[in-house]
Amino acid sequence: MKRFLYELEESWRIAYAQMRSNMTRSILTALGVVIGIVAVTLMGTAIGGIQVGFDKSMAVLGDDVLYVTQWPWKAVDDWWNYRDRKKIQTEYAETINRIIAATPNSNLVVAVPTSSLMRSIKYGGNEVENVFTLGTTSDFTVTSTIDCKEGRFFNEIESRSGAQVVVIGYDVADVLFPSESPIDKSVLISGHLFKVIGVNARQGTFLGLFSWDSMVAMPLAAFNKYFNLKNQLDVPGQNQGESDVRVKVKDKTKLAEAKDELTGIMRRARGLLPEKKEDFSINEQQAFKSTLDPVKNTIAIAGLFITGLSLFVGAIGIMNITFVSVKERTKEIGTRKALGARRRTILLQFLIESTALCLLGGFIGLTVAYFMCFGIGKAFPSFPIQFSFGLVIASMIVSVLTGLMSGFAPAWSASRLDPVTALRYE
Amino acid sequence: MDARQPVRQLGPVVIDIENITKDYVMGEEIVRALRGVSLQIRRNEYLAVMGPSGSGKSTLMNMLGCLDTPTSGRYEFNGRNVAEMDDDELAAIRNREIGFVFQTFNLLPRATSLRNVELPLIYAGMDPETRMERATQALTDVGLGDRIQHKPNELSGGQRQRVAIARALVNNPSIILADEPTGNLDSKTGEEIMALLEDLYQRNHTIILVTHERDIAAHARRTIRLRDGVVESDESTFVPQLETVAAS
Question: What H or E segment, with its residue span, contains residue A409?
Fold first, then answer.
């Protein structure tokens, strides 16, 4: 054991001396690994970023909220079975809330109705088109975490009275009010004046997934007064708005029970006979996730495979240079064997040499990748880049493995050299 | 040639070879490099192996140095059967029992004298402090105590061979196997190296010298001549001047 440690130490020393005396060659060879590690690391970072962006967008949906909708949150082949379903009315929320209140030990907390449409918003000379305009109640803050950068979300009184107030997203505020505070200013939405009472904190958009940054929210009563969804829905070619009801669950570990309870309530609300199939869908974040996860995983696997190829090319470079190194130092190998180096010792020596090269490449690669991530983060702040400690460890392990694998064949051939032949080699 | 007597009492048998042969396959042909060599070498001997090229001299040296195993025959090193050892066992024997001195020195070019001499000790698994101590001592013994941090390219040919001899000595081997140790040196430096070997012999080391030069072989106390893979002659030699030097 001790002897192994001394041999290991000796091998590192040789590897270091070898790299120093063949500086150009070592750096050029390591460059292959550098490029490979940069590619793999950036890919890993991008995948991590996708994950984070995805999770962030998912967090908007909330993992303890059920969504009652006309369409299920998944691809359906028999769309005709869903097309003719009755719309989800916002009034169901009141029904559900009544039943929740009457049910002891209900798994549900509160139902919140939402209606949405795409609308243009104006302030002075600035205009934003196609803003996701949401009408809801003050309970909305229970189902979604809304951070206000300025001002506040509307309260229950404003909600019930249908006050003409609005909470606007970060990006909307940015365009409409480039140089002043939007609070207490009045914006025009489809010709109606609304007072801005709050601005959401920046959330960041990702891959076009939903974000609070480009939306506005107002009391449902006001929404219904000015943008009657029922009329809208019947006009062809109009922006198709839609309504749904979201219900907060008490305990997210009991999501299934909550779902069953909500299904029962909805059947009652819709007056469905027991033999009838449900004509509504109850969705949760998980359903959405399970449709998107395979896509995300495919991107990750394909991406890592392709970038992995560049690392593989780097590994071939290392293998090549280790073969050269073995050839050049055949006589030295012979001498070492004559002095008592065993096969294992020689094997170890060359393995460590190739590993040291890969580690050097890996280290430089990581540094480059780190600065590139930093640069990308500065240039595209909306892209959620994720340079983690785990990634550093992972790429170092990958470097070592690359070194061991690419060095193995040359090191093995070195360890098998016949001492007599090796000594005679010129 | 008149006073044929051993210089001093010989020790136990270190190398015992009986009827060994070695065949090489060279393409279609089988080259029979050794055709039955028997030999006994005792501790404290100073032996020269001579012979023209092609006589099997190098092959015999490889056998004696445990770098290769014979095709047939018996080879015992300190009573252990070497002929049937595997690579790693042979490496262990070479490490502990044999000190090699090569014609081309075979030092590691980028390592200091100290590191070169330490090498066999590393392979023996010795701790760094002892290694350092013993390597320094060995270098001092060959007169290079002030050159331990020099690299081979900062040393003269003679000094390099001294480093190589220190490396051969450092693990306190049973035999020192010197293959044409003066072949790459001028005659004056060569004499210095031979004087160093003589000195080692006087300090109870066992030396096997492989050479084709008669005056180099003349330093030894016993000379074996090989021809066509067999021992042609095996005789004790005596060099009066050296005895005088040693006695004084």
Answer: helix A389-415
Residue A142 has pLDDT above 80, yes or no: yes
- What local confidence, expressed as pLDDT, does residue B48 receive? 94
Model pLDDT, residue A132:
86
Distance from the Cα of residue A183 to its chain's centroid? 32
Strands (E), A160-288: 165-168, 186-189, 192-200, 215-219, 242-249, 281-284
Complex ipTM: 0.90
pLDDT tops 60 at residue A233: no
List of chain B residues whose C-beta atoms are within 8 Å of the C-beta of residue A420: 62, 67-68
Percentage of chain B modeled with pLDDT above 90: 72
Is B102 part of the contact surface with chain A (CB cutoff 8 Å)? yes
Cα A299 from Cα A304, distance rounded (Å): 8
CA pair distance B146, A65, nearest whole angstrom: 82
Name beta bridge partners: B22: B34
Q: Is A8 on the interface with B (CB under 8 A)?
A: no
Residue B205 lies in a domain: yes
The domain total for chain B is 1
CATH number of domain containing B208: 3.40.50.300
Q: Is residue B2 part of a domain?
A: no
Helix (H) or strand (E) holding A327, with range, is helix A285-328
Could B111 and A2 be called an inter-chain contact, meaning their C-beta atoms sit closer than 8 Å? no
Tell me, yes or no, if B238 comes closer than 8 A to chain A by beta carbon. Answer: no
- Cβ-based contacts of B110 with chain A (< 8 Å): 17, 21
Residue with tokens 């080391």: B205
Q: In this predicted model, what pLDDT tens digit does every residue of A49-97 receive, in sequence order?
A: 878 777 777 777 777 888 888 888 777 788 787 877 877 888 888 888 8
Interchain contact, A17 vs B123, CB within 8 Å: no
Closest chain A residue by Cα to residue B94:
A340
The domain spans of chain A are 2-57+292-424, 86-279
Helices (H), ranges, chain B? 57-64, 87-97, 113-123, 128-141, 157-169, 187-202, 214-217, 240-247
Rounded CA separation A159/A134 (Å): 13
> What's the mean per-residue pLDDT of chain B?
89
Nearest chain A Cα to B59, which residue? A420
**DSSP 3-state assignment of B190?**
helix
Nearest Cα to B225, choosing from B98, B56, B59, B45?
B56
Using CB atoms, pick whichever of A10, A335, A345 lies closest to residue B106.
A335
Assigned domain for B7 exists: no
Write out chain B residues lying below 8 Å of A341, CB-based: 91, 123
Rounded to whole angstroms, the Cα distance separating A214 from A203 reads 10
Report pLDDT for A240. 60
Instruction: Indicate if the pLDDT at residue B248 is higher than 50.
Output: no
Q: Which domain holds residue B180?
A: 13-247
Query: Which residue among B95, B106, B110 sits closest to A340, beta carbon to beta carbon?
Result: B95
Is residue B238 helix, strand or coil?
Answer: coil
Question: Whole-angstrom Cα distance, residue A387 to residue A368?
Answer: 12
